[in-house]
Amino acid sequence: MEILVVGAGFAGSCAALLLREELGAKVTLIEQCAVPGGMLRTLYTEEGLPYEYGPRVVSVFRGTKDILPFLRRFLDLQERQIYQGTRLRPEFPVIPFPVDAESLRKLPCGEAIERELAEIRRRGSAPGERDLRDYLESSVGPTLTELAFEGFNRKFWGRRLEQMPAAWGKLRRLERIAAVGQYRLPSEAPHYYPTGGFNPLFDKMLEGFDVRYGVTVERVDRSAGRVEVVTNAGKFSADLVITTAPIDALLGCRYGPLEWRGYRVEVEVIDEGRHGCLGAAPDGIPFSWLYTPWPETVVCRTTDFGVIHHGARAADRDGPTVLLREIVDDTVSMYPVWWEDAKFYRYLADASTIPGVIPLGRLGLYKYTTTDSTYSMVRRLIDSLERYLAGEAAERYDILRNVRGDWGN
Ligand SMILES: Cc1cc2nc3c(=O)[nH]c(=O)nc-3n(C[C@H](O)[C@H](O)[C@H](O)COP(=O)(O)OP(=O)(O)OC[C@H]3O[C@@H](n4cnc5c(N)ncnc54)[C@H](O)[C@@H]3O)c2cc1C
Question: 36 C-alpha vs ligand 1 centroid, how far in Å?
């Protein structure tokens, strides 16, 4: 079977590799850029210092731990202690994020927050379900809701809290406040940064594949039992096309474009000194990144790549570091938005009616994914491919829904 994979990002590259290894398929990849990797690339400043635009570390969030042995086939993964911090107001000190009761107490409005949390505990009722404001105010109190969520929500999602569903808070467990911070960012497994950055991953995964770079897919058609892919460099045809390009564009944006939220980035090289420049948690470990949720700044998060690349306690941390600031920009496709749910599923239903065309990845399935959940998604597809190929449109639709998973990562 001849298979064409559109996109040589992590989803496309994983799919190509597993299809070849497990099904012996002949796979060609088409990639619009001059290099593979998509969001998962290590970039370099003019000074030659590395930084990442997308993933900073490999973690196991809601995907499977299988990601770790898979990546270790290609990369040497080094464990990293990842600490997140936040400055809830410009004049406030930096505290760990997720916030904990002990750190909140030290803030200028710490007493008000503590009083509200005590009152919520005394009432003992479940969080309100009317909307996100109700959910948050009834579980963390109005002061913390305003400081940590109100400004950020307006800045990033362009919505007030009462325009968001309570389910959003539940999904992300925004109500959790530990008594004392765990500081180290929790995930099922530790966080890892690969020696030499992420780029060698794609050199190794794609070894021996025919990858056509600089080719942009415009649409897909079906003709004489094969799938035809129309690109800026002519037509390609295959028995099966797995596409990690945006699903709406692939179907001619017939229901209108799907909305996204995202960041553009600003990169600055600074002389960091030995201890990081974003502050440190109470146990002395410097923060890898810092959130600034107040509405008066356009910057949402700042990352110190010195901490991520060299490790929090590395002795050789003198010298310059790359600081990356993320600034809200809705033209960048990073986070799908839940209010496009119905429109997305119309696109998915249409894609299911075209035999031999499978949307995949964060753009193809309009899903916020991480590397571990991307790998899980590809695994689910490979495991259900036989059924998918034999099934009718309704079954293909169900399989694709299952491959995508829910709105959680
Ligand atoms: C800001 C940010 C931070 C992140 N942080 C983390 C993290 O810390 N840890 C983690 O595990 N994950 C993180 N992720 C998620 C991770 O980047 C993704 O899960 C993963 O890279 C998705 O891979 P993909 O192949 O689905 O998409 P992409 O990486 O977007 O790849 C899609 C590929 O398809 C190509 N393409 C698109 N359209 C066309 C077309 N029409 N024709 C030809 N080619 C096309 C693109 O050029 C690209 O190469 C982060 C993502 C972002 C955006």
Answer: 10
